[in-house]
Amino acid sequence: MEITGSMLLSSIEHRTTTDPVWQQMCQRLQAATSLTHLVLAAWQIGLWLARAIVEQQLDERSQVPTQWTHCSVCCTALHSKGFVKRRMLTLVGEIEWKRRIGRCPHHCSGSHQTPLDEILGIQAYQQTSLELVRLGCLLAVFLPFDLASQLLLQLTGIAVSGDTIWN
Ligand SMILES: [Zn+2]
Fold it and tell me: What are phi and psi for residue 81, nearest 5 degrees?
């Protein structure tokens, strides 16, 4: 099913009614007097919207029926074990979604599969999304690690220590 712009907006509008952070951000926007505070308040709302769009898309994609492959050990077709939560720190903040995990019914070791993770190009224990890693590395090329960390915090609201950027 193709999603239209208005469908996307109405599904995100639904989130604004249930998320207390949205109300706080709107109050901060209203209370802002200087242009700087106005821009920063709007920037935070923009990041919130970007997170909502990413999570909406992931929720939608996780609902698509999964074609399970076969166990690499005993060749039995994998079974779905249901939906399991996943979190990731990204350029637009921390996002959370659920996706199906499959496993061999004979419990063969190493038979776990998460097809959506594979499609998304993320690794099993990955906690930071690549575009955020890339931006952190790029900043660190030009700036001392602590300054890169401060700039990242200002731009995205994400607290990443200088040590983490160094790593
Ligand atoms: Zn097996």
Answer: -100, 10
121 C-alpha to center of ligand 1: Å?
A: 24
Backbone phi, psi, residue 54, to 5°: -60, -45
Query: In angstroms, rounded to a whole number, what is the distance separating the alpha carbons of residues 115 and 83?
Result: 12
Question: Distance between CA 167 and CA 152 in Å, rounded?
Answer: 15
Per DSSP, the residues of 149-160 read HHHHHHHH----
| Per-residue confidence (pLDDT) for residue 94, from 0 to 100 | 92
Taking the centre of ligand 1 as the mean of its atom positions, its distance from the CA of residue 65, in whole angstroms, is 21
Given a contact cutoff of 8 angstroms between Cβ atoms, the answer to whether 162 and 145 are in contact is yes
pTM reported for the whole predicted model = 0.85
Q: What is the DSSP letter of 48?
A: H
Q: What is the rounded radius of gyration, in angstroms, for the C-alpha atoms of the chain?
A: 20
Residues of the chain with pLDDT under 50: none
- pLDDT of 154 reads 80
Burial class (CB in 10 A: 0-12, 13-18, 19+), 85: exposed
60 CA distance to ligand 1 middle (Å): 29
